[in-house]
């Protein structure tokens, strides 16, 4: 289970969501609609929040990006890298070797 956020992607979140150093961004599993994942019918939601038991996190540009324990299963067999695309962030899931 690997989770990373590039500096450029973190800056995009700061700009788009009005984040400041010390803020937390939670990624959570949704059944319908949202950011596509490597799991069919499961999507990611994103919110500014600091709640629950953090299972995996990455701190970049002063922002903590994380998954709670209840949603960390999504990365059991995959690594996730969040990076910048042309105009917004791109979520790259890759199967663990």
Provide a descriptive summary of the structure in words.
- The N and C termini lie close together (about 10 Å).
- The strands form 2 sheets. Strands 3-4-2-6-5 form a 5-stranded mixed β-sheet. A 3-stranded mixed β-sheet has the order 1-7-8.
- Strand 3 and strand 4 form a beta hairpin.
- The chain is built from 1 helix and 8 strands.
- About 10% of the residues lie in helices and about 45% in strands.
- It has one domain: Hypothetical Protein Aq_1857, Chain: A (Sandwich), CATH 2.60.300.
- The protein is mainly beta and about 100 residues long.
- The protein is globular, with a radius of gyration of 13 Å.
Morphology: globular
Q: Mean of the pLDDT scores?
A: 91
Please summarize the sheet with the most strands.
5 strands, mixed
What fraction, in percent, of the residue positions are helical? 10-25%
Radius of gyration: 13 Å
Q: Could you spell the SSE succession in H and E letters?
A: EHEEEEEEE
Instruction: Tell me the span between the first and last alpha carbons.
Output: 11 Å
The assigned structural class equals mainly beta
Strand content: over 45%
Strand order, main sheet: write it out.
3-4-2-6-5
Number of domains: 1
Number of helices: 1
Architecture per CATH nomenclature, i.e. the level-2 architecture: Sandwich
Q: In total, how many beta strands?
A: 8
CATH topology: Hypothetical Protein Aq_1857, Chain: A
CATH class: Mainly Beta
Which stretches of 5+ consecutive residues score pLDDT under 50? Answer: none
């Amino acid at each position: 289970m690997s989770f990373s956020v590039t500096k450029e992607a973190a800056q995009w979140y700061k700009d788009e969501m009005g984040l400041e150093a010390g803020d937390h961004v939670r990624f959570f599993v949704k059944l319908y609609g949202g950011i596509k994942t490597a799991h069919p019918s499961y999507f990611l939601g994103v919110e500014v929040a600091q709640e629950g038991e953090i299972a995996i996190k990455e701190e970049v540009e002063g922002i903590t990006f994380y998954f709670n324990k209840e949603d960390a299963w999504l990365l059991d067999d995959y690594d996730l890298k969040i990076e910048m695309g042309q105009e917004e962030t791109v979520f790259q899931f890759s199967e663990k070797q």
